[in-house]
Amino acid sequence: MNSNSHDKSYQVARLVNRKGDLDKRWYVEYYAWNADKSELQRKQLFAPSALKTANAREEWAREVIKEIQEKADAGHTFKPLTVKTAHISAPRFTFAQGIESAIVTKLNSDRNRTVQTYRSFLNIFKDWVNRTDFANTPITEVNEEHIILFLNWLKIEKGIGNTTYNNYLQRLTTAFNILIRQEVLKENPCHAVEILPEESCKNVALNFHQRLTIEKYLLDNNLPLYKFTRFLYFTFLRPSELVQLKIKDFDLKNKQILVPAEISTNRKEEPVTIPKLLLAEIAPMRLDKYDPDDYVFSRNLLPGRHKIYPTYVSEMHRKVLQACGIKQKDVTLYSWRHTGVVNAYKAGIDIKTLQIHIRHQNMEMTNSYLERLGLGLKHELEQREW
């Protein structure tokens, strides 16, 4: 409470910064005396929505708190209290600036895996918008036609399917929703764009011919990508995890990789066994020659400091599939992981061991995964006699 004679009428103002979350409204909170109710009553002054950074909001709060304090020191009764703040209009973004601003806001609040997804999306969007005449189009003039042009470009240039199309539409929708919350826009142009029908999700492993064809091509033309697929095949790691592994995560003496919790999909630190065939592939890489903080797969899929993203590798792999004449759309980089699981199962590795190696939390998850691959308990029952 204020120590002056009027301390009954005022309690010190403070900034509520919502734990630094810029997506939430920050405000100055204080308590002023309500003579009618004979009690202190909470009051809130919200920061202008046009203030996008923490520094801007904190500066605004300092001015507001200073004015409230001055009034309290002068014996002001706060009936009614009005604190005048300069009107700040919403920023005028171009299409490119608006989407980048929204995605950066998203990146500041989301967990690691989502950060990767949206960074990749932003890079692809910037690539597209810089090829068009829309980079400097005011964000307020963007409509559904712009959105459809971007998504159709993805289908033509990147060869994406309906599921990925819908995923990109959702990311754009999220970006525009952020701009609406920030009062940059009033409407979301993505809401007028239709979602495309999707096939039911299924896991697809490579058949024997596809596997041999791709492996031969990679051995002749792209050895680093061949190494990358070996890791997926033998460790059952996900591409998003593999691109984040560092030299220090490898314990070759004990034949294991320690997957850190911050990069693991299930958010747990867990070891992965390195099978002997993969050890033979790792030996020529001479990982001991690199800094422990280097990524195992960096630029050009060689060890180094530069972090890459799964889409970088997926695009390389997509071009290999084209070169090999494999047009099956559900065959992807991820198929190497599925293929490894299928072949390990067929080699007689029991489901409990597979569960541990896949890093599933329980047996039900593993059996469901195997069933989507056409394997599992049902397959065992169909193949056995008793």
Q: How do the helices and strands line up, and which of them pair or pack?
A:
Layout: E1 10-16, E2 27-34, E3 39-46, H1 54-73, H2 95-107, H3 112-131, H4 144-158, H5 162-181, H6 208-221, H7 223-235, H8 239-242, E4 250-251, E5 256-259, E6 270-273, H9 276-282, H10 310-323, H11 335-346, H12 351-358, H13 363-372, H14 377-383
Helix pairs in contact: 2-3, 2-5, 4-5, 6-7, 7-9, 7-11, 12-13
Organism: Rhodocytophaga aerolata
Keywords: DNA integration, DNA recombination, DNA-binding
Protein name: Tyrosine-type recombinase/integrase
Task: Give a verbal description of the structure.
The chain is mainly α. It contains 14 helices and six strands. The protein has helices at residues 54-73, 95-107, 112-131, 144-158, 162-181, 208-221, 223-235, 239-242, 276-282, 310-323, 335-346, 351-358, 363-372, 377-383; strands spanning 10-16, 27-34, 39-46, 250-251, 256-259, 270-273. The strands form two sheets. The chain has a three-stranded antiparallel sheet, covered by helices on one side. Strands 4-5-6 form a three-stranded antiparallel sheet. The longest helix is centred in the first third of the chain and has 20 residues, at 54-73. It starts with 9 loop residues before the first strand and ends with a helix. Mean pLDDT is 84; it is low at 1-9 and 80-88. Keywords: DNA integration, DNA recombination, DNA-binding.
